[in-house]
């Protein structure tokens, strides 16, 4: 292709958000080109916990996070950590996060997230059917686990909030708990089973399947790092790492944890931080995990995949420059062995990814403040896979000039 030709729609970011945006726009007959420095679904979207967490409507600041913070921060390998040298840079974000947890903001955030999740579930069902990826969906539910009666009771307000939005669940104990996951440590006295919780067989394989569908509809990929973006009179400019300048009529920024750096070049300051998540993927023979197991008191999950057993989660707010601290993934694996005493920890593959997170747990979906040809689609935190199809639908509607299916003001880039 002639590099001087003006692109119809350029998307920066080949993760699951960019892939789904490309799929929806290509279906609508638009010419789409994705730019990514590594490839399609090769970075953070490749190694997540594989959940389609449609019932996960509680903003992070409301999940008991504030209550647990002092205890967790005291443990450098615990569920929530901040490298001390990074704390001064992080403080403004933490203040916004604390404010997002206030009761006066609770209902608005909860309602917006619930609407997003309803759309996400419907859009994923349709996209999987159209792309032929439906065989990658698992509908085994999830099991959230508690080590004490006090921990269980502390979870009840959150479950009551979910119930208001029609999310089904049942609390279990004793034989019912054992039946849902044989071999579980007796330290867990109660659990909550969510039958509507879904997972995928492998998030990387799903992303590549959706991209194959987008390609069949004409979407293209260019391997390139974008160093600079700018608003042009009739579109946007992209400056590649090799100095090449490309023009596009419309631009979508879906570059995950790097997106705010590009938005800043256009004049938008968006308070995005990076939840660095760790996991270890063990061989499939490591343990017979029946469904995704969630350990809220420890901030991690165990997921059965087609390609192995994935043990991971936790939050390290440490930006995008610091090297990985794989002692965190080892600590999670040690806990997993205690929680599933028969788990074989051998042969694992460690991984770290960057979750792009905003203080109120809602993504940014909308136009740049001073550039109507540029659309943002980032900041989904640990819900990128879950909300990707909904984001693809919403961005498509924005670019095509169609009315969105619900009010997008809670997701506005200008809300901060």
UniProtKB/TrEMBL annotation:
Record-linked InterPro entries: FAD-dep_OxRdtase (IPR006076), FAD/NAD-bd_sf (IPR036188)
GO cellular component, as recorded: cytoplasm
Transmembrane feature ranges: 7-26
Domain FAD dependent oxidoreductase residues, every copy: 8-398
Gene3D superfamilies: D-Amino Acid Oxidase, subunit A, domain 2, FAD/NAD(P)-binding domain
GO molecular function: oxidoreductase activity
Keywords for the protein's UniProt record, in alphabetical order: Membrane, Oxidoreductase, Transmembrane, Transmembrane helix
Keyword Cell wall biogenesis/degradation: no
PANTHER family referenced in this protein's UniProt entry, alphabetically: GLYCINE OXIDASE, SARCOSINE DEHYDROGENASE-RELATED
Listed name of the protein: Amino acid dehydrogenase
Organism in which the protein naturally occurs: Mesorhizobium wenxiniae
């Amino acid at each position: 292709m002639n590099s001087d030709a003006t692109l119809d729609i350029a998307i920066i970011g080949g993760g699951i958000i960019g892939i789904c945006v490309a799929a929806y726009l290509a279906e609508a007959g638009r010419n789409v080109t994705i730019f990514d420095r590594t490839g399609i679904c090769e970075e953070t979207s490749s190694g997540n916990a594989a959940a389609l967490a449609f019932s996960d409507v509680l903003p992070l600041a409301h999940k008991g996070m504030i209550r647990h913070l002092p205890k967790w921060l005291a443990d450098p390998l615990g569920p929530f950590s901040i490298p001390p040298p990074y704390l001064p840079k992080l403080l403004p974000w933490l203040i916004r996060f604390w404010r997002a947890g206030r009761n006066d903001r609770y209902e608005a955030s909860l309602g917006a997230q619930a609407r997003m999740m309803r759309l996400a579930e419907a859009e994923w069902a349709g996209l999987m059917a159209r792309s032929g990826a439906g065989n990658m969906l698992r509908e085994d539910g999830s099991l959230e686990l508690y080590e004490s009666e006090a921990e269980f009771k502390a979870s009840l307000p959150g479950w009551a909030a979910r119930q208001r939005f029609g999310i089904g669940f049942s609390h279990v104990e004793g034989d019912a708990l054992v039946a849902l996951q044989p071999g579980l440590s007796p330290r867990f006295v109660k659990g909550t089973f969510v039958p509507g919780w879904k997972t995928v067989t492998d998030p990387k394989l799903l992303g590549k399947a959706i991209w194959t569908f987008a390609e069949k509809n004409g979407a293209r990929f260019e391997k390139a790092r974008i160093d600079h973006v700018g608003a042009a009179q009739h579109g946007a400019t992209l400056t590649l790492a090799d100095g090449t300048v490309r023009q596009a009529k419309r631009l979508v920024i879906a570059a995950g944890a790097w997106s705010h750096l590009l938005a800043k070049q256009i004049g938008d300051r968006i308070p995005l931080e990076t939840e660095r998540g760790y996991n270890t993927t063990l061989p499939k023979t490591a343990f017979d995990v029946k469904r995704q197991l969630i350990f809220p008191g420890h901030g991690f999950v165990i997921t059965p995949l087609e390609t192995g057993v994935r043990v991971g989660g936790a939050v390290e707010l440490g930006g995008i420059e610091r090297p990985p601290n794989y002692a965190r993934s080892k600590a999670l694996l040690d806990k997993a062995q205690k929680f599933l005493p028969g788990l074989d920890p051998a042969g694992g593959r460690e991984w770290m990814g960057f979750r792009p997170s905003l203080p109120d747990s809602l993504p940014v979906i909308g136009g740049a403040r001073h550039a109507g040809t540029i659309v943002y689609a980032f900041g989904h935190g640990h819900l990128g896979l879950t909300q990707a199809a909904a984001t693809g639908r919403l961005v498509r509607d924005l670019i095509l000039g169609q009315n969105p299916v619900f009010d997008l003001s809670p997701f506005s880039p200008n809300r901060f």
